[in-house]
Amino acid sequence: MTTPSPPQTPPPPLPPYPETPAGGTPPPFSAPRPPLRRSRTDKVLGGVGGGLAEYTGIDALLWRVGFIALVFAGGTGFLVYLLLWLLMPARPADAAGPVSAPQPAEPRSPVPGVTVAALLVVLGVTSLIAWATPWSPGPVVFLSVALLVVGLGLGVGAFVAGRSSRGPLIALGVVLAFATIVASAGQGWLDRSRGGVGDRTYTPSTAEAVRAEYESGVGDLELDLTRIDLADLSGPITTSINAGIGDVEVLVPRSADVQVDVQNGVGDADVLGDGSQGGFFPGTGGQRWTDDGTPEIVLTIESGIGDVTVSRG
């Protein structure tokens, strides 16, 4: 007797495939974009470039080349990279969790990539012009140019469809804006700090030995003019002092008529016993030129942080 075979179970139905659009190309699939984090796998120094690449889809090499270009463009690359390192948290170690099912998504917008490319080109051209000409732009100029390019990219991205057309540029624009504000606020201090670091004392013995300008970056500065013989002057001794951080002390002869102009940011000013910012101060000696209304010494003092004292020796 023949045993009947068991009934066969029909195979499960295949999942429905997304409908093909009119153009004949199936819709693209992509995983959700990860949050902005420093990368743990693609990193050279802190994972900032790798994290920006994962977030924007722009190759990490382009981001690193951009930071290097900013380093040579007035040193701003250090500041921007440091800010991103501090503001971007590291990706968690267990971030590689279950991957969600792919979902249809719009094509990625080309605006961020084109903007970064334009940013590198503009910064490169600016650096080349600065190298080939006497023009010496500071960090504020390079940061402002970079901010302008990113702003133009944001304006174009507002009219171009596609994913990630504005988010990465907004993040980059915020960092550049903050760096520009910091660089602008510190530009005056940087200009003053070029005078060097350390205390300085100057004691010229003749009018010809007095410099037209004395500079000090960080440290106290003392200028002693009491050794100068005022009897044979052919004209007033004119000098200026530019100090960044530190006290400034100037000693003038007791018999000299002195014209003083003081501009200081943070600190007290004591000009020949007067708390004002300067003026005309006649000498106290018995020589014939004393108190004739014409100064023998003209002082201009600019100080950032520190006390300014002008006294008679």
TrEMBL record:
Residue spans of biased composition, Pro residues class: 1-34
Membrane spanning stretches: 61-88, 109-133, 139-162, 169-190
Residue ranges occupied by any Cell wall-active antibiotics response LiaF-like C-terminal domain in the UniProt entry: 210-310
Membrane topology reported for the UniProt record: Single-pass membrane protein
Subcellular location: Cell membrane
Pfam family, one: LiaF-like_C
Main localization category: membrane
Domain Phage shock protein PspC N-terminal: 35-90
Domain of life of the native organism: Bacteria
Protein's UniProt name: PspC domain-containing protein
Organismal lineage: Bacteria, Bacillati, Actinomycetota, Actinomycetes, Geodermatophilales
